[in-house]
Specification:
There is one protein chain. The protein contains two helices and twelve strands. β5 and β6 form a beta hairpin. It has a ten-stranded antiparallel β-sheet. It is of the alpha+beta class. It has a domain of 151 residues: Cyclophilin-like (Cyclophilin). It starts with 47 loop residues before the first strand and ends with a strand. It is an enzyme of class 5 (isomerase).
């Protein structure tokens, strides 16, 4: 299954698989439909077995973790994220669990999109856009989601298919409210990703692997 990012783009050829475990131009490109499900109440998180784990990891416990920040140590510098556990408790719980188990360590952000939508997609240990943690869980959406510069959200392959892939928005992006927003980068981190994006993709096209590789060495939760 590919995780994707689907956005209504003027360029039909540009498909962004940034929001779910695939490779398409918009987090919703995998055919995801808009969901208006509310955030799950504390203790109600459900993580369902799905596919084969790209890296051995345990599914999170059901009770949301108390996690406030995440720091991604990368080859281009540290990316600091304020996590929003009030808005997306089950997503933050999963992200924190995967981070603490070293799931994101030594992985590569496999996709950069510089046309139509402006995101860097990470979180797949295989680097192909098809990998995941071996489980999935429901969206945490209320229909008010926006994807301004600095937003951190989950990629998906359709409704309720969240896994491990996420995307970093480095410039204001218009997408339907189909991708769970679970945090925001600080100003310096947003600028760091934007500087990386200015270098374009390996192919020179608007969607592909970054010309400058972005490797995550570790993810620390605070």
């Amino acid at each position: 299954m590919r995780t994707r990012l689907l956005a209504a783009l003027p360029l039909a050829a540009l498909s962004l698989a940034v929001l779910a475990g695939c490779a398409s131009a918009d987090p919703a490109e995998s055919g995801a439909e808009t969901s208006t499900e509310s955030a799950a109440p504390a203790g109600a998180c459900q993580y369902v077995e799905s596919g084969t784990a790209s890296k051995e990891v345990d599914a999170p416990v059901a009770d949301p973790a108390d996690a406030n920040t995440a720091v991604l140590s990368t080859s281009i510098g540290d990316i600091t994220i304020t996590l929003d556990g009030d808005r997306a408790p089950c997503t933050v719980n999963s992200f924190a669990s995967l981070s603490e188990q070293g799931y994101y360590d030594d992985t590569t952000c496999h996709r950069l999109t510089t046309s139509g939508i402006f995101v860097l997609q990470c979180g797949d240990p295989t680097g192909t856009g098809t990998g995941g943690p071996g489980y999935s869980y429901a969206d945490e959406l209320d229909g008010s989601e926006t994807y301004e510069a600095g937003t951190v959200a989950m990629a998906n392959a359709g409704p309720d298919t969240n896994g491990s892939q996420f995307f970093l928005v480095y410039d204001d992006t218009v997408l339907g409210p189909d991708y769970t927003v679970f945090g925001h980068m600080d100003e310096a981190s947003t600028a760091l990703v934007a500087e990386l994006a200015a270098g374009g993709t390996e192919s020179g096209l608007g969607d592909g692997a970054p010309a400058t590789p972005v490797d995550i060495t570790s993810a620390t939760i605070g």
